[in-house]
Write a structure and sequence with these properties.
The chain has 183 residues and is of the alpha+beta class. The chain is 62% helix and 16% strand. It is elongated and about 80 Å long.
Length: 183
């Protein structure tokens, strides 16, 4: 009798553990799918719900400022400017931060997406895109994952952090070569 009961308990615990793992993975897939739906249908409310805007803006500013500083330190033309180069860097940083504040919100993102020429290339959200999200998710911890979005040969990393069963975008890292195009 005890052997049967022990086997039932083992099956119960294994089944419960498996169910928890599936719920965990599915919650990440579902959140990514909701972001996809928000972008496809230009649903500001849905986008707002799955993006941690303050943290995203802060991380975006830090990342862009670090890239700008790195690029300007490598450029000989900025080194020759001396103190004037530092002033230009300061203006550029403030300008970038202002653009981030203006456009990195649900309304600004919707506006940029509406004007985008690539909006027609986004697949319509469906069960297939929901299940397919499993392929693009890369877990880098128990409470975070990232996806790699490719645009014109450039890779952008989009990071999600877990808040309960919901996952929200908290950081976007763009390639260093992005500033090469701005010269």
């Amino acid at each position: 009798m005890n052997i049967k009961r022990d086997n039932k308990m083992k099956k119960f615990f294994i089944g419960t553990l498996l169910l928890l793992v599936l719920v965990y993975i599915f919650s990440a897939m579902y959140s990514l799918h909701q972001i996809h739906k928000g972008i496809y249908y230009s649903d500001k409310k849905l986008i707002k719900e799955y993006v941690e805007w303050d943290e995203l803006r802060s991380n975006f500013k830090n990342h862009s400022n670090n890239l700008l500083l790195k690029k300007t330190q490598e450029e000989e033309s900025f080194k020759k400017l001396g103190d004037l180069g530092i002033l230009f860097k300061g203006f550029a940083i403030k300008f970038i931060e202002r653009l981030i504040d203006i456009y990195l919100n649900p309304e600004g993102l919707s506006l940029l997406l509406e004007k985008s020429e690539k909006k027609d290339k986004i697949p319509e959200p469906s069960l297939i895109t929901l299940l397919g999200s499993f392929i693009v998710i890369n877990f880098n911890g128990l409470s975070s994952f990232y996806i790699t979005h490719e645009n014109e040969g450039e890779e952008f990393l989009i990071f999600f952090n877990r808040q309960g069963l919901k996952w929200k975008i908290t950081q976007v890292e763009f390639p260093e070569s992005l500033f090469d195009d701005l010269k």
